[in-house]
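[recover] target loaded
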């Protein structure tokens, strides 16, 4: 029988220059989240290193690894030991010259369930992701874990309602967004509050429009760049319920573990009272797959 709830944990962390301290920090955080009864634990985007996409450097491709691979094997042991689902964002090497921004999903018994490759790839000042990543080629995905049906999207994906809707239609109960987003320091005073508010609002809207839970987990800390003044990652990770109500929210500058119980009857109640899926007009949506202005 399906449980009445699942418990979600998000790990908001800073990222050191070296891989091993980041991996150990993440493992310790998974243990702490499990101690707080978390059943599904999500780590931030590309948590094993500083956000390397803030420059163009061929040597940084050496950070990539295969999936499954050494990191998923290590995290599988932790998942099995603590009986938790682990959602981990990694820099994936598929073959020479083919790299993806990818999230692996590991079930509570340690089984690797599969991966999602980031579909929308940004290319903005200090977010030079098109230099490193090929756009995802696996489509939108939902993973049937021991505790819930988990949909995974990654950072820039969080601005696109199409990705959230497509994943919801596959049966997701929760959308998880591993994230690395922050302020350009010179812009923070003027635009910082509105940028963060827009980020949070867009994702709460995905929760409301699709009647499901949303968890967005960001990193924290200032990280310099050879190509600019660097980025101040704004943290602010949060968990929202199916009507966009915030169940838990982190600070902008502290490492934190968010844990929230997600009640399935909340999904049922919201979808009955706000039946957006019932009233969709799919026969009229053909224009959504056309280029702008066509």
């Amino acid at each position: 029988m399906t449980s009445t709830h699942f418990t979600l944990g998000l790990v908001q962390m800073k990222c050191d220059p070296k891989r091993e301290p980041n991996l150990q920090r993440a493992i310790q955080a998974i243990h702490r989240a499990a101690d707080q009864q978390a059943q599904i634990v999500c780590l931030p985007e590309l948590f094993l290193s500083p956000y390397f996409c803030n420059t163009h450097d061929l040597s940084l491709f050496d950070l990539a690894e295969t999936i499954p691979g050494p990191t998923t094997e290590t995290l599988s042991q932790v998942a099995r030991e603590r009986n938790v689902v682990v959602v981990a964002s990694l820099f994936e090497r598929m073959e020479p010259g083919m790299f993806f921004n990818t999230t692996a999903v590991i079930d509570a018994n340690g089984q690797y369930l599969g991966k999602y490759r980031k579909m929308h790839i940004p290319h903005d000042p200090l977010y030079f992701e098109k230099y490193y990543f090929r756009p995802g080629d696996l489509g939108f995905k939902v993973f049937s874990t021991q505790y819930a049906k988990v949909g995974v999207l990654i950072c820039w994906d969080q601005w696109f309602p199409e990705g959230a809707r497509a994943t919801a239609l596959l049966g997701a109960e929760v959308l998880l967004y591993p994230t690395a987003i922050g302020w350009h320091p010179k812009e923070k005073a003027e635009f910082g509050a509105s940028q963060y508010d827009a980020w949070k609002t867009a994702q709460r809207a995905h929760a409301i429009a699709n009647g499901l839970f949303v968890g967005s987990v960001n990193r924290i800390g200032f990280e310099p760049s050879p190509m600019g003044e660097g980025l101040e990652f704004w943290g602010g990770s949060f968990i929202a319920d199916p009507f966009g109500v915030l169940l838990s929210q982190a600070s902008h500058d502290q490492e934190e573990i968010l844990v929230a119980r997600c009640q399935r009857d909340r999904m049922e109640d919201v979808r009955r009272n706000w039946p957006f899926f019932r009233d969709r007009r799919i026969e009229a949506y053909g224009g959504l797959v056309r280029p702008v202005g066509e």
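[recover] notes: The first helix runs from residue 19 to 35.
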